[in-house]
Amino acid sequence: MASLPREFYNGDTVEIAQKLLGKYLVRRLDGEPLVGRITETEAYLGRCDKACHAYGYKKTARTSTLFMEPGHAYIYFIYGMYHCLNFVTEPEGEPAAVLVRAIQPAAGEETMRRLRFGDAPMTAYRRRNFSNGPGKVCKALFLSSSENRLDLTGDTLFVCDSLTDIGLPEATPSAGEVLRSGPRIGIDYAEEARDFPWRFWLEKEEP
DNA sequence: AGAACGATCGACT
DNA sequence: GTCGATCGTTCTA
Q1: A127-133: long-range contacts at Cβ-Cβ below 8 A with a sequence spacing of 24 or more?
Q2: Which of A5, A67, A84, A118 has the lowest tally of Cβ within 10 angstroms?
Q3: How far is A173 from A200, CA to CA, in rounded Å?
Q4: How far apart are CA A64 and CA A54, in angstroms?
Q5: pLDDT digits (tens, 9 = 90+) for A17-32
């Protein structure tokens, strides 16, 4: 199987958030693979992180997904309009997840473009903002609450190391990229957790 | 039952 | 940079 094994997700969330960078997110939609290279993530830990929906092991209908086995999708609805995709991490019962904040399209771009912008013409601005935010990622991949709780070891939604894992030509190596980290976005309410440097992204190195 | 609040985005000054 | 859209989830009573 091409997808990363459940064991990959059964561990330290901050570490997994970094290890996911550069890997390929695959969403199979009506048989067509929609693929994006993961370029930005954030870690959320219920145990100690006031920004996490399950902070203090708070269990509700929504956060129950975070208490599942690692390697499941946690997709929630936010701001009345958008969805955010996460991967459940840590041993079962330790509520935590990695938020996928950005991907670079790698296959199925035409379908993703239609899902994102419909018939509107492609522009440089739209290209630049194609999937550089969690709501945009879910829109481009047609992910919503219906996919909440999906098993990432299945073949509908999963992560793999290389495009060759799903029978696509290998991508040209990305030279001169560095891993950066900083505070997470949109969690100013989270008191001390506001400053945790748990956002990670790949960036072209400055010459 | 009612109210407050978002792990966001895109339009606009 | 600011600001409004929009509604499910959660909490209060």
Answers
A1: A130/A105, A131/A36, A131/A102, A131/A103, A131/A104, A131/A105, A132/A40, A132/A101, A132/A102, A133/A101, A133/A102
A2: A118
A3: 20
A4: 9
A5: 999 999 999 999 999 9
Strand C positions within 7 A of protein Cβ atoms: 5-11
Give phi and psi for A76, each to the nearest 5. -125, 160
**Backbone torsions φ then ψ of A150, nearest 5 degrees:** -60, 140
- CA-to-CA distance for A13 and A90, rounded, in angstroms? 6
pLDDT for A175 equals 82
Q: Given this model, what pLDDT does residue A207 score?
A: 64
Position A180 scores a pLDDT of: 97
Please report the pLDDT score of residue A174 as a whole number.
80
Structure tokens at A117: 């912008």
Residue A173's pLDDT is 77
Alpha-carbon span A39 to A42, nearest angstrom: 11
Q: Which residues of chain A have pLDDT under 50?
A: none
Q: Which nucleotide is nearest to A186 (CA to C1')?
A: B7
Cα distance between residue A57 and residue A66, in whole Å: 9
CATH architecture for the domain at A6-168: Roll (3.10)
